[in-house]
Structures are given as C-alpha cells and as structure tokens.
C-alpha cells in the first residue's frame, strides 16, 4: 500500500484554477486494471484504488500518512507560466499571426 501526495492539475479545457488549491492522497494500485467489455470502464480488484483523501495543506497530508504508517511520496507541482491576455487581443490589428476561421 503505497500512496502519493500531490496537488491536482487544472483541467486542460478551462483556464480556471478551481479545485487545485488542495492536496490529494491517492493509493497506487499494484494489481492489474481490467477494462469492462460492456461499458469500457476501468475496474480493479483493489478497493484502495478508489480512495482519494483531500487535505488543505501538504503538511496535513504528510502527517496523516505518517500517523497511519502509510509509505508515501510527495510530488511537488511546478508553477505554470501563464501569459496574461485580454479578450480584446483576439481582434487586434497588430497580431503576429493572422487569425481567421
């Protein structure tokens, strides 16, 4: 039973940062993952693969893992570089690349 502690990445479909300020403790599965032939969903025989614990800080997650004797590793996320842009920049005359549909 090995756990990883990390901050989730933001969704690639949005530019928002919702649900990325907490820390997660996930258990890594050792068994194989089976694909259900009827629905196509992944399934596993290990029930710990479905457990996901949320914490406000990294220190809380590490303390929980140490108190419960759970071997863990912490994955630090590196900050993403965001380019600040406004909506009006989409219609600017001095764009570097032409924009058409």
Would you give an account of this structure?
The radius of gyration is 20 Å and the shape is flat. It starts with a strand and ends in a 26-residue tail after the last strand. The longest helix is centred in the middle third of the chain and has 10 residues, at 58-67. The strands form 2 sheets. It has a 4-stranded mixed beta sheet, with helices on one face. A two-stranded antiparallel ribbon has the order 3-4. The chain is mainly beta and 101 residues long. The chain has 1 helix and 6 strands.
Brief overview:
The chain has 101 residues and is mostly beta strands. The protein contains one helix and six strands; from the N terminus they run E-E-E-E-E-H-E.
Shape: flat
Report on the biggest sheet. 4 strands, mixed
H/E order of the elements? EEEEEHE
Structural class by SSE content? mainly beta
Tell me the fraction of residues in β-strands, as a range.
Answer: 15-25%
Terminus-to-terminus distance: 51 Å
Uncertain regions spanning at least 5 consecutive residues = none
Number of β-strand runs: 6
Mean model confidence by pLDDT: 84
| Radius of gyration, taken over Cα atoms and rounded to an integer in Å | 20 Å
Cross-sheet strand order for the largest sheet:
5-2-1-6
DSSP helical segment count: 1
The helix fraction, in percent, is under 10%
